[in-house]
Amino acid sequence: MQNSARRYGPTVLVYCFVAIASALTEWLSFFIAGHFIGPLAAAFAAFFVATAVNYELSRAIVFLSKRPRGQEILLTFFMSAVAFLFNFATFLCCLKLLDFAPMMAKFVGTGSGFIMNYALRQFVVFSREPRFASWASLACLSRPAAESCVDHELKGGAPKPMIAPQSYPGHRILEAMRNAPHYAEAVYRMIRSALPPGTPRILDFGAGDGMFAELLLRDGLKVDCVEPDPHNQQSLASLGLSPVADIAVLEDNRYDFVYAINVLEHLHDLDRHVADLHRVLSANGRLFVFVPAFAILWTSLDDEVDHVRRFTRASLTRALGGSGLAIEKCRYFDSLGFPAALCVRALEAVGAFRYSPQTVGFYDRALLPLSLFGDRMLSNILGKNVVAIARKSVFDRT
Question: What is the CATH number of domain 142-391?
């Protein structure tokens, strides 16, 4: 049972969102059809519409196909009818035989129908092989720290440097993020809360176009930058900064505070760079890290900007701790971003979504404030990003 939960857990999680979308479709279809035809005919029509939506989403983002499409469609509708009858029979059994309250009986019936629907799709309609890696692979729990999830999530090819020296491919996304001031301010507040008062020596590792370095300069702080991309180096120079291309040239024990925002996920040689971060920190110096979370949330954005991996709390803690850094705090950020990214996956599968300044700006204005509120309760469970604060031991001067 435990092995099955680890193997199929991610697929079940994604199918939950498909089931919710199907249920909403069914209710909406019933509401609309009910104005034109009788309730019984409307219920049948809504069932067919919702099952069609469920099939398309299931095939696109949840399960692996193994049959011709025509066979899958017929099986899906037949198995959905079977699951509905099972749902209804469970409801009647709980209501009449077990004397459950009607609403409780309905909950139990719906839950049993969901389980039956998932099982029939996973083991009958579609391939038995799950589309997603197991929880253990997603969290990289089965790999030593030195591997840092690369084997599971590497897209192939020989190891590459930190970011392609000639040109960073994510300039379009960096520009789009300029339309997310609330996001930037939320991350900057976390940087400032982790920054000890009066810290004289600060390093921005992987500074990009200088979004966060610019905010530090605005507040009268001095910051050095590591940034290998020539175009980004020009942006940093326009702010009066003098970036270096490689952290390896920086001297040991130089910085009291180092931060890396959306950088570690690009690194093929992660352990070497984390060791360098540890090396340049002064004794008792603090490191702030912000990275994308959960491989299950992989979208076209990750491909576009050449991500190598996404992290979990466990894998990020292990990656930082492997160099000798002591983890002070590690939590998730942007809880609403988790289901939002799953929706993006679904929309991308049918060619209905592309990241743009407009979509980034909409999420930043309308949804991020709700997400930050949700983080108060969900930051230990899920989120679109992982945030970690680590410290170099006061006794470690290597």
Answer: 3.40.50.150
